[in-house]
Amino acid sequence: MAAIAPLAGSFALIFGGCCSNVYCLEAIVKHEPDSGLLITLFQFIFTCLSTLHYQFDPNGRYFVKPSPVPFRKWCISAALFFTVNMMNNWAFAFNISVPVHIILRSFGSVTTMAAGWMRGKKYSPVQIFSVAVLTLGVMVSAWADAMSKGKTMDASNIDLTSASFEMGLLILLVAQLLSAYMGAYVEDIYIEHGNHWKANLFYSHLLSIPLFANFTPVLYKQFLRLHASQPFQVPLLMAASLPPMASKALASTSQHVIFLTANAVTQLLCITGVNILSANTSAVTVTIVLNIRKLVSFLLSIWLFGNQMSGLMKVGAAMVFGAGALYGWETTYKIPQRRRAAAEEAEAKKAHFLSSSTMSSPAAVRHRGPKDKKRPVTPNPDISTEKDFDVISKGKKELKPKKSSEWDYKLAITIITILAFATRFWGISHPSQVVFDEVHFGKFASYYLQRTYFFDVHPPFGKLLFAFAGWLVGYRGDFLFENIGDSYIANKVPYVAYRSMPAMMGALTVPTVFMIMWDSGYSLPACVTAAGLMLFDNAHIGQTRLILLDATLIFFMALSVLSYIRFYKLRHVPFGRKWWKWLLLTGVCLSCVISTKYVGVFTFFSIGVPVLIDLWDLMDINRRQGALSLPEFGKHFAARAVGLIIIPFFLYLFWFQVHFSILTRSGPGDDFMSPEFQETLSDNIMTLQSVGIDFFDTITIRHKDTKVYLHSHPDRYPLRYDDGRISSQGQQVTGYPHNDTNNHWQLLPHKTLPSNEGQRIKTGDVDAAGAQYNNTLFEIRVDNVKSGQDFKTMSSHFKLVHVPTKVAMWTHTTPLPDWAYKQAEINGNKNVQQTSNIWYVDDIPSLPADSERNKKEPRKIKHVPFLKKYFELQRAMFFHNNALTSSHPYASFPISWPFLLRGVSFWTNNDTREQIYFLGNPVGWWLASSLLAVFAGIIGADQLALRRGMDALDDRTRARLYNSTGFFFLTWAAHYIPFYIMGRQLFLHHYLPAHLASALVTGALIEFIFNIEPVDPESPAPPPSTSSASNPQSHTQSHTKGHRRTQSRPVRERVATQSLLGSWIATIVVLSAVFWCFMFFAPLTYGKPGLTVEQVQARKWLAYDLHFAK
Question: In which domain of life is the source organism classified (predicted)?
Fold first, then answer.
């Protein structure tokens, strides 16, 4: 009875409070349907005040009782709670119909059960069946309720390909997943810390209240509307029983304010019951009860407000109540019954074994030979003695990891983080001018704020962060960052806010590197060395203080490595909450890397390789932890595929959806996109000015890429070209950049038409020009457009395919000789599919000004499916990214990067002799590059020694060197070697992710080289080989040369026995040299102070091309 009492009380509170809450809610919403946000806030505040006495402690800190649950967990729970509710309401702002909303919202039980299954929970077939029936019943009931209220249930008019629908659908799906995760998260809190439902009730509502701050204007307007309603009419019976003052106060208060208060009181009762139920049952049970409560609320609403209950509603109600009863019967009766039966059977087996083990052997049966205590026996996993149980339980207690404070690591990372912020933010306002590539990425942020479409070869995530920073400070994007050196102050640009975003990420990258080493189990000197190389690196500091994308790229690359290491450490406890958390965080960080720059694919490769190796090990039937069945392996594979491929890909698509949703106005990026794409943008010149073209029109034709006009003048081609070829001496046809009458061309049909007027040209038509019929027969070929559509100026991008030869008209930027007046060459391209063959009609000079075709009608913006726009943009991005092959004065080759042979000039000021020169810390880079070679040499030497039978390393050291340090080396190689096969422009900043990995390798090798671990005298020597067994001398030599194997111990325990003196000396020497070099080149990193000629000359270590050296 004691166990049933909390459940009975929770049911009474849920059904009594929530169902009575329906009356108050309907009374408010019936007159003010847009008051949902105010109702929610009022409920939160009232719940907070009502539960404050649970947590009040006059002697506690801030007068609050100390919570047994970590405060961060309450923060996460509150954030999830608020986010789920807001996203469910936000979805209605998009093209989501009532049926779609009902279907997705009704799958709460399914998603909660799926989340539990993925975390290792088991459900019986009856539970699964009842959840399916209940979900279907809720859908049917909600559908019937919506129809009875007159809401349109026709989903046929939904544009499934529209961006609005896809966005709303994505929001609802994310809300469902977060809701399922929230249920599992709260359930885990109760399991780990106890049933502190009162604390959860208090903190989940208290911490959500500040999140309403952004909606203050909306909340104020909603409250004024409610307060303006008529006063509350106190019933006579109630007025007689109340004091006169109370009765007068009620009569002078708005009736909707009274209902608002009553709604908050009843909601408090409801959520109190939900929290009690959550503390005593599973997340699935809570969801089941809430679904049944929703139906009871429906029925109560029908009864109170006189609505008709349709037959469909009755069917849904029967399904919900029946499925709920079936789930309750299975969960509270059948499953406990089966568990009791299994426990009784196990107890009987144990008692039978103990009774049989006390019986002595018959005297007639004797064992031959001496008593051998080590005689092998066949193990039986089903039986064990009490002694075995005692040994196992004692062993478990001894094996429990002792939580050490590790105060030295925490102190070190705190100091390093403070120094990282200091080095990145010091003097961040200087220079107050546009620096280097800020001219691009600052401009893109302004375009986002203006909602003007632009084109860039990089994905949108990093640029969206800059736009978000500008939006936070209220900037409207008026300044377009046109030229390097333009003043920020004169143009009132919040450039410090822009620069603070990458500076913050750059600062956080340094402690992230420390945590990577820490979580990998390295000693404190190794962690400090790796983080110190990043902390005092001039290249990372210089790149992360400006409005550039590399800080975002490197930060999320480091987070990806850290998340994967933490996920890998949990490989022996799969499918737990933390296991899923770090797997999903790895995928999210990987997605953010590739959503910033496409070189993020290298991070995917560096983490994908160890993931594949891990899966290969899981396939091993002889693995130490036991073989996995194929379904179990499939579960591991599916989890990694979802977490590291599917979710990152959808998040990657999400940023493009945000990109398209923001950039709705025509802008400088229009020319890179197809006419169909441009018609989705408002104010697009092409859409506004396009005119249909008829046969016999005189037109001007321009090349899409070079913008030259198709031109012809009376001059003829020379008889013999410079290369000896003979020409036909025909009339010259060239490309001319200026508009004149020699650019006019007339379109003639290839066959006789019934009239010379009003004969509209369609895509796919064939045109000819005059007497040279066969030589001037061209097909108008418009790609991705159905044949037969109108051919228009500006909007119809086409290829002119010569019918007899099947080649496309083409031009390029190399001019012809003097005999063609240096104009562009027009030629035929056999590769018809190339985009350089595209032309468009610029104008129709023969069209009269008063023609009907010149009358512009209002054009509606067209909608193109998201995936079609995405694939078009991807093709354009890849094409133009590969086309960046032109030379640059500061471009460099990958072979020079590890040795820091040259840098890049970012900014100069001739008056003050100040300059920003992008250059790494030479000492740090040369050390890291040298140790990369040392690592390769160590691996090679170890492999050679093993081939010759010499084992110089113990198994633990070798495994650490190959696995952990090898992973860092793989990360370096994956982010460096691919640049050798790239044909585009390359700069020193492309090496920064690889440099981070080289810093990790350096820290690891500092520990490997300088740590001295005493040999454990109790550790067993390696077993002698066959040759040494037969030859005592060789055995002695083998024992002398070989390295004694040490038993595998935890990393923290091993480090505690090591002498770190050598490592600390090496760390101090290295970081001292690195710090001196950082300070020496700091004027070039921070751009101040200005240097004299002698000071500049002193910093030209490798003939760096610095300014003001003369």
Answer: Eukaryota
